[in-house]
Amino acid sequence: MSTLVSIRDLNKRFPIRSGALGRRSGWLQALREVSLEIRRGEILGLVGESGCGKTTLARCLLRLERADGGIIELEGRDLTTLTRGDLRDMRRSVQLVFQDPWSSLNPRMRIRDIVAEPLRVHGLASGAELVRRTDELLTLVGLEATHGGRYPHEFSGGQRQRIGIARALATEPQLLVADEPVSALDVSVQAQIINLLHDLRDQLGLTILFISHDLAVVRQICDRVAVMYLGQIVESAQAGDLFGNPLHPYSGALLAAVPRPDPRCGEERVKGRILEGDPVGGVKAFSGCAFQPRCFKAEPECMRNYQPLLNLGNDRSVRCHRHE
Ligand SMILES: Nc1ncnc2c1ncn2[C@@H]1O[C@H](COP(=O)(O)OP(=O)(O)O)[C@@H](O)[C@H]1O
Ligand SMILES: [Mg+2]
After folding, report:
1. At 250, which CATH number?
2. Can you say whether the dihedral through the CA atoms of 214, 216, 222, 224 is positive or negative?
3. pLDDT digits (tens, 9 = 90+) for 188-245
4. Nearest atom (ligand 1) to Cα of 179
5. Rounded to 10 degrees, what is the CA torsion of 63, 64, 68, 72?
6. What residue's CA is closest to ligand 1, atom 8?
7. For residue 222, what are the domain limits?
8. Which residues pair with 73 in a beta bridge?
9. Is the shortest distance between the CB of 228 and ligand 1 below 6 Å?
10. pTM tops 0.90
11. What is the Cα–Cα distance from 151 to 105, expressed in whole angstroms?
12. Has residue 169 been placed in a domain?
């Protein structure tokens, strides 16, 4: 599989403001040297606890946020340095599916117009062609084209997420960034949307960056997974390898918290420990491992020494010198 997006050493920090005047009192490092490759046609999972920087990475990828350093290449073009005109093209090829289908759709617009909007904005279709494309998009995501005249509130949560997906697909993007696309939905509806994304990938040859805090969801859809902790990628691997044998203690802990489909094959396969406490160190600078304060394998060296992302071959990297 060839590389569609190559992210290298991406950094992003936000000012922390305090006091009545909102003076800057420090920095929050939301992304630390994030390097990640997204391959053409794959569904790459990005997983980690809330606040670890997943959305910030997505926003940098869409240039809704400017990175402080590093490179994001889409087919060899660096998105971090694009000018306004070039950004327009990029926004056609990279589209976002939002978490919350209730707030991301304009309640006063008919869904036909919601889905058609990107086609109009990018000048991709008009007149009869616009109607045809819109009907086609609604059908593609499993909705009735004849329902195009209805408003978002007339649809269920799952259907609204389908509308959001249809809108994202309107410009025929190469990459779909789905940021917690099923987190606001009931479990039964989650599976339908996951299946839809999976089918769309196969049908359209899409590439999907699937972001979720929920490893159980990621397990259902992703080919490869990158695990993030406090702004860093701590492990990446093919999904089967990660779920079968997590190498980073944090991945193990996340996995140990996921309910197993078959309870009989249970306990001894769980290598990690259930996570306790909250991530600490987001604000503080540190030189060693970010996960060390919560890690059952931690030793003094973990605090002192910088932990590089070790490339183990076979598509596997891990940021822990104490991995198996
Ligand atoms: N615009 C912002 N200003 C200040 N801090 C931010 C901003 N956006 C995100 N953050 C902080 O950056 C960290 C990462 O946030 P985010 O990327 O939203 O995490 P996730 O999507 O994994 O939950 C969090 O600590 C969050 O509070
Ligand atoms: Mg988020």
Report:
1. 3.40.50.300
2. positive
3. 999 999 999 999 999 999 999 999 999 999 999 999 999 999 999 999 999 999 999 9
4. 21
5. -20
6. 56
7. 3-101+176-318
8. 6, 78
9. no
10. yes
11. 10
12. no
